Amino acid sequence: MKKLLITRVLPDEVLDAARARFDVTLRESTEGLMPDEAATALAEFDAILPTLGDQFTAAAFGGPVRAGVLGNFGVGYNHIDVAAAKKAGVLVSNTPDVVTDATADIAMTLILSACRRAGEGERLLRSGMWLGWSPVQMLGTHVTGKRVGIVGMGRIGQAVARRCHYGFDMPVIYFNRSQKEVDVPARQVETLDALMSQADIIVVTVPGGGSNTNMIDAAAIAQMQETAVFVNVARGDVVDEGALILALQEGRIAGAGLDVYAREPLVPQELRELENVVLLPHLGTAALEVRVAMGLMALDNIIAWDEGKPLPQQVT
User: Fold this and answer.
1) CA–CA dist 168, 200 (Å, integer)
2) 273 pLDDT exceeds 90?
3) How confident is the model at residue 316 (pLDDT cuts 50, 70, 90)?
């Protein structure tokens, strides 16, 4: 029986399925593997089921490698150096598709909450400072009919576009580095600056890491309208967090809704102090049925490796 390391506690259904097939070691810690811990895991286990925060850097692959597969729990895998994994003969898979709708739903949660100042309103009420309804109290941004700009028109971007167009009559524009035909009424713009300047609401859904690091930089943020709202459900490293904080502090944009951060779980104090931001603790796929589906998909890829078959969701 092959030795499998699962780096975080997963739903019972996933753990039961894994234990029925492998000799499972389960890490109880909620913190990710550091590079030295990842290196040890690669040397000691046949297979690993890692997730966000586990630092499988190039250095982690520098020593002896026993593992043959990393069945990543999550669609994003920027915490894994895939080139180093490939060089070491380690296959890598992820869990697309099953996360699409849940992540798009969180994007809509953030759009509505940021535009309608739901976070501020709840804090006002809970503090006991709400004095009653007023015609000019807590005036926010009307969402229906606003132009949404989507950065990255993959599965999640298209799911957000469908919700915005069909649910809220929102014109959709999008920026994608390559030409992309989509099945929802939408217009592709040629540059990121064009999208940032034209959209009332901007939603980022691109993968993290690589050339997308700090893709939304100070120059891009400077293109936004003062009334615009920024939403990120991608990865925190896609955005220059300091530049975003400064724009919010100075009132150069109306607000933001964030589910991801550059150095999770660290969220800058300056960001937490801002009233015009809705902050969620990376809830994108936080629904039981979604997390079960993710775990079983990751496990299916590891089982395929064990059986000498192609990985269904192989990324490298």
Assistant:
1) 13
2) yes
3) confident
User: Is 181 designated active site?
Assistant: no
Active-site residue flag, 272:
no
Cβ atoms within 10 Å, residue 285 = 21
Question: Whole-angstrom Cα distance, residue 285 to residue 288?
Answer: 9
Query: Is-above-0.85 flag for pTM?
Result: yes
**Nearest-angstrom CA–CA distance, 176 and 151:** 7
- What would the mean pLDDT of 211-238 be, rounded to a whole number? 96
The whole-number pLDDT of residue 118 equals 97
Question: What DSSP letter does each residue of 64-84 carry, written as one string?
Answer: -----EEE-BSS--TTB-HHH
Which one of 264, 272, 273, 275 is the catalytic residue? Answer: 264
Q: Which one is catalytic: 79, 116, 117, 282? A: 282
| Residue 152, phi-psi category: left (phi > 0), alpha (psi -120 to 50), beta (remainder) | left
DSSP assignment letter at 310:
P
